[in-house]
Specification:
alpha/beta; 11-stranded mixed sheet; 13 strands; 22% helix; 24% strand
């Protein structure tokens, strides 16, 4: 259930932003949690369906922090997509960290009943009602807790989400029936992640609450009807702090249902929050845009 009746706060496009060639912050959407800025590319045309990328921050971070870290919003003009980076809800006690109620493992540590699935779906619907969003190119990108949230959105709204990119997140460990529609999944994970371990784990010494990166991808390959034997592909450069092309690629795209696939980018010796290479954001955006909901 929504926390409040939705309303729109009009901020107006700025001529200065257009003149400088930066994405225009055309308006902000408020669904009861405060205004969320919507970045619209300078060349936006109502007559042309435009991709939407929703960016989800990690535990304790914010939408603004996600924008600064991943720099995906900087590419909105060049690639022609709308993007938004909302904030999660703050915890009621302790450090009051922002979080997403994403999975049984991460990161609703205080037992909140907040409906983040409903909030994010309403946010997507509201943006789609105000701009010409391409219904086959709605994407989520999440880091850590935001990656877990991306998986939950993909599972609960597969008819809306075309693809997700999860950096250092994970799917649910439990075996579940496949969602009604396929969703493309990209898991990006460092083997030296000390927060969300590459091989799976939990938040206590005896916990085993979230699965490994490979399990997450294979589970979604199964959901999407793909063969669960992956194929190794090219090496990529995602982490500027590591030498050469340190990231291995494994794809699960044989015999998949139309509109579904699974891919794993493994950053060898990569940490929980990699120092991104100069082309990291471009590589993620290009992967997303090449994976529509309907081919």
């Amino acid at each position: 259930m929504r926390n409040a009746i939705p309303h729109i706060l009009v901020a107006g496009a700025t001529l200065a932003a257009l003149a400088l060639g930066r994405p225009a912050l055309a308006q902000s959407v408020d669904l009861g949690r405060g205004p969320v800025e919507v970045t619209v590319p300078a060349g936006y045309d109502d007559a042309v369906p435009t991709p939407l990328i929703v960016q989800l921050h990690g535990y304790g971070s914010s939408g603004e922090g996600q924008l600064r870290y991943m720099r995906i919003g900087d590419l909105a003009d060049d690639y022609g997509f709308i993007t938004v980076a909302p904030d999660g809800t703050r915890e009621e006690e302790g450090r009051q960290a922002p979080f997403w109620n994403a999975s049984s493992a991460c990161c609703n540590f205080q037992g909140s009943t907040v409906d983040d699935v409903g909030y994010l779906k309403s946010l997507i619907d509201e943006i789609s009602s105000r701009w010409t969003v391409d219904p086959d190119r709605i994407y989520l990108v999440g880091h850590s807790n935001g990656g877990f949230m991306s998986y939950r959105m993909a599972y609960e709204h597969p008819g809306t989400v075309a693809a997700i990119a999860s950096l250092a997140g994970a799917t649910e460990r439990a075996e579940r029936t496949a969602p009604e529609a396929p969703v493309h999944v990209l898991q990006i994970h460092g083997t030296d992640d000390q927060v969300i371990e590459y091989g799976g784990g939990g938040f206590g010494p005896e916990d085993d609450t979230y699965p490994s990166a490979l399990y997450s991808v294979r589970q979604w390959a199964g959901y999407n009807g793909c063969d669960t034997a992956g194929q190794a592909r090219e090496m990529r450069d995602l982490d500027a702090s590591l030498p050469g092309h340190e990231t291995g690629v494994m794809v699960f795209e044989s015999n998949c249902r139309p509109g579904g696939s699974a891919t794993l980018w493994t950053i060898s010796d990569g940490s929980h929050s990699p120092m991104f290479s100069a082309t990291y954001a471009e590589q993620v955006v290009e992967w997303l845009l090449s994976h529509p909901r309907r081919p």
